[in-house]
Amino acid sequence: MNVPQSTMNPKIESWTFAVPLALSAHSRAEQFRRYQVNPQKAKQVYLNTLAVYAVNFYLQCRGFETDWETSDSCNPGMQMLMDVADLVVKNRGKLECRPVLPNTEVVCIPAEVWSERIGYVAVQLSESLREATLLGFVEKVTSFELPLSQLRSLEELPRHLNQIRPAINLSKWFENIFEVSWQALDAILDPKATQLSFSFRKAVEVKRCKLISLGTPNQAVAMIVAISQASEVEIDISVEVQPPQGYTYLPSNLQLIVLDENGEAVINTHAGSDNQSIQLEFSGEPGDSFSVKVALGDVSVTENFVI
């Protein structure tokens, strides 16, 4: 490995992962390189392809399903327009795989890929380009250069990916297509509570709920999502949390937070000592992504949605 010892956190160095860059890796990189006329762009595409190859190899070794063919890094047009090295991880999202040249102390991440990513993996390429070493990862970036010393251990990457839940496609709900875990309200909630909660709502609403475990059985809550067509392009969305059957009040200080596609909190509320429900309302358009986080103390559960 060619990383200077002073640039790596000793706690994470032992968890790097080396990948031999086989002939197939270079063949693919060469194939993509030939699409580019500009020599500098051609080199960038070549190195990006080797980095994606290495991360793809690692993830498949760890049992994750990937889809390189649908990634922008596999599209010559996108390669020409952007400095992109993404890899689609099925049911999770895009992981950016950034090459790190020998004897450098930072990984460079262009601003055009600072969003719509579930993480960024730094991949050290050897001088001969015969081997790539996965150094670690970060969840988010806000600057072009990230010091290698700030990387999280690669050991934590599988856990990070497993915590990412597939996005629920709310537009499918209008076609009566629901995920198994999102059930009719009376399957989880007291029928009387359900009737009171939604008695003011419009008849065209589609609503489902899911039981959310917050660590112990008496701290489970029901998340209820209701959607209605406000206009041809706008969808009204309501997210509510109630106690499940057999319980009257929500846990005190339970938080309900709506996050935008970058993971930033946009609206939130919390339960007091005698709240039977808390609720947030907002609107969006087809293609918009958001997440809803339910948190109690150090325990939280996040559900991801796309309209």
Question: Please, could you describe this protein's structure?
Answer:
The chain is of the alpha+beta class. It is 19% helix and 32% strand. The chain has helices at 10-13, 23-33, 39-61, 76-81, 157-162, 191-198; strands at 17-20, 66-67, 86-89, 93-100, 106-108, 119-125, 131-138, 145-147, 168-169, 206-212, 221-229, 235-242, 255-259, 265-270, 278-284, 289-296, 299-306. The chain is elongated, with a radius of gyration of 23 Å. The model is unreliable at 1-6 (pLDDT under 50).
Question: How would you summarize this macromolecular structure in one to three sentences?
Answer:
The protein has 307 residues and is an alpha+beta fold.
Secondary structure category = alpha+beta
Mean pLDDT: 87
Largest β sheet strand count, sense and barrel closure:
6 strands, mixed
SSE succession: HEHHEHEEEEEEHEHEEEEEEEE
**Which strand order does the major sheet show?**
1-7-6-4-3-2
Number of helices: 6
Structural Rg: 23 Å
What labels would you give this structure?
307 residues; five-stranded mixed β-sheet; alpha+beta
Q: What secondary-structure arrangement, pairings included, does this model have?
A:
Elements lengths: L9 H4 L3 E4 L2 H11 L5 H23 L4 E2 L8 H6 L4 E4 L3 E8 L5 E3 L10 E7 L5 E8 L6 E3 L9 H6 L5 E2 L21 H8 L7 E7 L8 E9 L5 E8 L12 E5 L5 E6 L7 E7 L4 E8 L2 E8 L1
Parallel strand pairs: 4-6, 9-17
Antiparallel strand pairs: 1-7, 2-3, 3-4, 5-8, 6-7, 10-11, 11-12, 12-15, 13-14, 13-16, 16-17
Helix pairs in contact: 2-3
